[in-house]
Predict the 3D structure of the following.
Amino acid sequence: VVETGETGSEPLPVGMVGLGNMGSALAANLVESGRSVVAYDSAGPGRAPQSISEVGSLAEVVRQSGVVVMSLPDGIASEEVARAILGVSDRRTSLVLDTSTIGVRAAERIGMLLEQDGVEYVDAPVSGGVAGARARTLMVMFAGTALACARATPVLAALSDRRRRVGDRPGMAQALKLANNFLSATALAATSEAVSFGCSVGIEMETMLEVLNMSSGQSAATTDKFPNQIANGRYGAGFTNTLMSKDVGLYLRAAEEQGTSSVMGRVTADVWGEFATKEPGADFTRIFPFVEGS
Ligand code: NAD
């Protein structure tokens, strides 16, 4: 039996790779749940919340942790880290949980790569933003073998209070996450157009949101993004347009590969692609001024 750190009286530290907007919030949740955390980010030290031991290399994380949680920008980064994990001969890591949005094919590939070398893999993307991560309302959708998911459960429980196993193989949770972000991206872009139209007629934004939230046009765009990030000019959701454009692009490619309808997917991908090209790295809630000005 490979030591996982999930049994016995002294669990091994959990490894955290990627300490960006989402990764640092997830690392903080692990610590608050009583886990010790060893963390690494290729951008250098100083990104982890207090009480997390940051190490200078991925190899060090892999030597100390039974379970590694990844929060990385895309499939290229996740695959690079997965290969580097396998390159550490004296590794303790035998289970990898990938919370990144990387697409279906990347999760399938990384799952096979790791499993060939005896490292289990759980595809575990998240939805609900940095605010949701802090509030522990982040939805963690995960997929993998029954054994891998059972072993992942204590760490998933430390990450968030909302979790659901959605399939038995890596890639299935990515498919659901891509469908979710396609819906979220479409609703936010469409709501930006609708609010811009209403305001041009002379209706106050606040009035529009109040009425929409009691009508059939309601969505997370009208209940959360507009009131909490756009109407107050905050624009600080902590998720970039570059990442949203990546997600919608991944959705579109996956839908095309499956042969399902992608008419709306193309329109949404175009809008977000244009926005991310014009203002790379902007908070994704700035889609409203972008749509309003175009
Ligand atoms: P981010 O760009 O803020 O953070 C990514 C971090 O990964 C950076 O600190 C970067 O230095 C690090 N990194 C990149 N390559 C690395 C490597 N090879 N080794 C170690 N570290 C590396 O992105 P984020 O907003 O934190 O998102 C992370 C993932 O979570 C993405 O896949 C994103 O789509 C997903 N996600 C984010 C949110 C959100 O609200 N921010 C919500 C849901 C899902």
In short: The mean pLDDT is 95. The longest strand covers residues 162-167.
